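As agreed, record passed on underneath.
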Amino acid sequence: MFYASWLRSCSGLHVGGQIDHTSLHCTLPTMRYQAMYVQSRSLVVCCMRPGRFKWYNIRKPAADSRQAEPEYFEKQALALEPAPGYIDKLGAIWLEMVSVGRDVSFKRDDFFIQRDVKRWLPELDVEKPRAEYEYVKALKSAPETVQKIFSVQYGHRKDSTFLWKRMLISLVQQHDLDNESLEARIARHTALIRHWTTLLMQMKSKPGWLRQSIYISINHRRKLLRLLREQNVASFKSVLERLKIAYYTPPLPEDARPMTRKAWVEFIVRKKMELVKEERLRRYHEELKERQQKFLETKDHLFEDYEVEERKLRSELAVIRIEEENELEVVGKALDDTIDQVTESTMLQYYYLPRRIDPENLLPG
């Protein structure tokens, strides 16, 4: 019904109406579809098929615990060999990464992927009194029905949360009254995250306010872990081990991976080309090493040939040197600086000879 009403609103169709064209392209709220329909006198048959842009489920649950690794999808993409359809395969990996990214960000720090969340919360004795009635002496001698009323089993959800907080804090606190140190605050957030995650998995419809609360607690716990790591590395490792949580160092802004499909595929292709180049250089280096070994085995014979040729060239050079060392016979006499001592009039006599005038050829005046 939705598709029929939407199609009529897009194209102005109605049952039994006349159609001037045979296909149209429209965009649904979540995906792009191409509508194809066939006309008849009283009925329009319409079918929807996927168009250019593929729809993905942003709430897709993570199916593999290895997806929690920050470089899992990048390694999976780099393992592909360039071949026909290579870009499409990279696009499919990017689609999987984006689809499960939201679920991974919620679960990877506590190892929730494909594991039972209840295993990571301490077991509670639900028959014990609630925290505010623990030290009431009259309750110990009260009837069993009264004790059940004041027990954790018949209390609110906050009573269980309080006990889980106290039990996790006791694992990492520095002393009995420690409730505000970094270790205690990390344990408190861990109890909240695990309890709320358990509730979220039990709910059929996932409320946004609960997801937002979990997201805020996860980010705040990461900040506290970063501060604890900067201040006390030994305590940081101890907290991770006792609370069974993980800490992933966020990448620097210049090292952050692109998130759009086109940019991510281009990044993977460039990195793959670098790996291919390095692999080819490594193979060429090994080939040169093998050739070097063969050369070292035959170098003695080559050196002998080179020495024979060198001696021959040296003998030829010696003959040429002997011929050049013979004294040259000087022909003529050098005047040295005689020209500098000659006067200008003498120079004119040498280089300027005036023309003689015959008096017989002179015309009468």
Notes: Residues 1-40 have pLDDT under 50 and may be disordered. The longest helix spans residues 261-325. Residues 109-247 form one domain.
